[in-house]
Design goal:
This protein is α/β, with parallel strands linked by helices and 265 residues long. The protein has 8 helices and 14 strands.
């Protein structure tokens, strides 16, 4: 199975130079086997540039899954749709168009809502599927819908609500559960355990995406890393809002476990 990180805060590998990859605050990933684009980053500039660099035609994705409504995950939607010549199925939470805010420097509220409307999506021929409950795209691939917060705390950071729309993408792999997450606002334990519940799997093979360690205290980061160590995943890709210190904490905690991945683009 092939997953390409298309947008991340960091471009850290030498191949980023030769491919002329761009980074920006945000996240997007492409699941080649299922033609699913998960999130779009902040502006669309990095998304389209990096799609070209990896040889992914904007018309290739058949599904666009939105992890949650924040602009650093939805800001590339218009650029993607404007670059396409055919419709796409877009799966998002029912509160996609609900206003979202984060507390910025000096306590100022920053609007981080989507920058498009339902009318715009309709004009582009988008088949918009709004959900709260789990949604099966195909056998072995499930959009989580709302993730219960019963196994651990949320990771909301500076966001002013609990982000009920935070949705993961679950893939049933022969080696176990693959969980793809945009920001991980639901909390790592909740994301993984709900994935087990929905898929019937009991082994975590990979967790990929933003884990929102930014803003967490040392004790909470230790709880999460200990939890993941206990699950023994083969692949951990902490991107975006995991943050540099969070990536370092994962690396130090899981050093020696085969397959650990912390550098992305």
């Amino acid at each position: 199975m092939k997953i390409t990180i298309l947008v991340d805060n960091y471009a850290t590998q030498l191949s980023s130079l030769s491919r002329r990859l761009l980074s920006e605050w945000g996240f997007a990933a492409y699941l080649h086997d299922y033609k699913i684009l998960y999130d779009t980053g902040l502006t669309g500039m990095a998304l389209l540039n990096n799609m070209r660099a990896f040889g992914i035609d904007p018309n290739e994705p058949e599904y666009l899954v939105i992890s949650h409504r924040h602009i650093d995950h939805t800001g590339g939607v218009k650029a993607l749709l404007n670059a396409r010549s055919r419709p796409i199925k877009m799966i998002a939470h029912t509160n996609l168009f609900t206003k979202a805010y984060a507390t910025g420097e000096g306590g100022k509220l920053e609007d981080i809502s989507v920058d498009f409307t339902s009318d715009y999506l309709e004009s582009k021929g988008v088949e918009l599927i709004l959900i709260k409950e789990p949604y099966k795209i195909t056998d072995g691939v499930i959009v989580s819908g709302e993730i219960p917060r019963r196994w651990g705390p949320s990771h909301t950071g500076a966001v002013t609500d609990e982000v009920p729309d935070d949705m993961a993408l679950y893939i049933k792999h022969p080696n176990g559960l693959i969980a793809v997450t945009g920001c991980g606002h639901s909390g790592v334990e909740n994301i993984v355990e709900y994935g087990f519940q929905l898929t019937g799997l009991d082994r975590l093979y990979a967790i990929i995406g933003g884990l929102h360690f930014m803003g967490l205290g040392e004790d909470r980061i230790r709880q999460v890393t200990n939890y993941l160590v206990a699950k023994s995943p083969s692949v951990v890709v902490g991107t975006h809002c995991t943050g540099i210190l969070g990536i370092a904490a994962l690396y130090n905690a899981m050093l020696g476990q085969l397959g650990l991945v912390v550098l992305v683009l």
